[in-house]
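User: I'm preparing a small set of examples for a lab meeting where we compare how different chains pack in three dimensions. I only have the primary sequence for this one, and I'd like the structure in token form so I can line it up with the others. Please keep the answer compact; I'll paste it straight into my notes.
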Amino acid sequence: MLIRYKKTFEKIAMGLLSFMPTEKDLKKLQLTIKEYETEENLQLFLWKEEDIIGLIGVQMSDDDSSLLIQHISVNPSHRHQGVGKKMVKSLKDMYPNKQITANDTTAPFVEKCDFC
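Assistant: Understood. Below is the structure token output for the 116-residue chain.
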């Protein structure tokens, strides 16, 4: 299930974000987390089963009609089990009236999610 990011999940979120190709540098990673904590149009969600095993970060459009998936990451030991697709589907279910889009980094994965 998707849960909203809270400061108490910072280390877990940073660990999951670090699997993104654009978030390898510690300073960049810290800046990204800070942006999710402070920017109103950015939302970070964690995927929790028994443990937190995934993360999806979105940017709301200015006109509130769409969501841009900026980050999507799954713990390597839980990959190829449909977790990423479940996160995208849950996001779509959470925001049924919004169009889901992706950036250059997340597009190859999001395009595989046929329900978007």
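A couple of notes for your slides: Residues 2-110 form a domain with the Aminopeptidase fold (CATH 3.40.630.30). The chain has one domain: 2-110.

User: Perfect, thanks.
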